[in-house]
User: What shape does this take?
Amino acid sequence: MKALVLFSTKYGSTAEVAESVATTIRSNGNDVDVYNLKKPFDGTLEGYDLIILGSGIIAGRWIRGARKFLASHHKTLDSKRLALFICGSEPYFEPHRNDELRKRYLEDIATEHGLQPESMAMFGGVFDFSKYGLVVTKLLTKMGVVKVLEDAGFDASKPCDLRDWEEIGIWASGLV
Ligand SMILES: Cc1cc2nc3c(=O)[nH]c(=O)nc-3n(C[C@H](O)[C@H](O)[C@H](O)COP(=O)(O)O)c2cc1C
Assistant: This one.
């Protein structure tokens, strides 16, 4: 099988998840390419059996490159095996909102583009204040993110990694 993992990231955590998904699928004897949608995808999807698309969630939305990829390629994706994933803090901190978040960040996006992915997953993300400018740091602090992280036992002066690598590995294996 040949797979393509495409992703949009702002701060890098979704890229690491995409690489990990690719490594898992490769380790099962498959051919996997990885593409960062910072640049629009200008290759062909022909020849790929499985397309996996991931995006970080910033301010309640998918990152632009991943949104644009779906808008441009949804017709081709319709005839492919497709899987979607997002990385965000809401699924980690607000598991009671799981159904609502899944609808908002995955199901509605797929439906909007006439797509029926075979699998969709929500993973935790990363907060790393060393990567944010003053405005973003102030905003996140004002929104209570630092307090939520510290209440959950994280040290916000270091990268706070909300990703569950075992969960990510199990999901990727399930796609093979
Ligand atoms: C400015 C900012 C806004 C964010 N907004 C949301 C949000 O609305 N919902 C959410 O679930 N996570 C939110 N997050 C958490 C990110 O989804 C998380 O940091 C993720 O790992 C970002 O992906 P990236 O590292 O690939 O860019 C936000 C993070 C930042 C820095």
About this structure: The helical segments are 13-27, 64-77, 90-93, 98-112, 134-142, 145-151, 165-175. The chain has seven helices and eight strands. Residues 9-14, 56-60, 87-90, 125-127, 132, 136 surround flavin mononucleotide (CB under 6 Å). The CA atoms of residues 48 and 134 lie 42 Å apart.
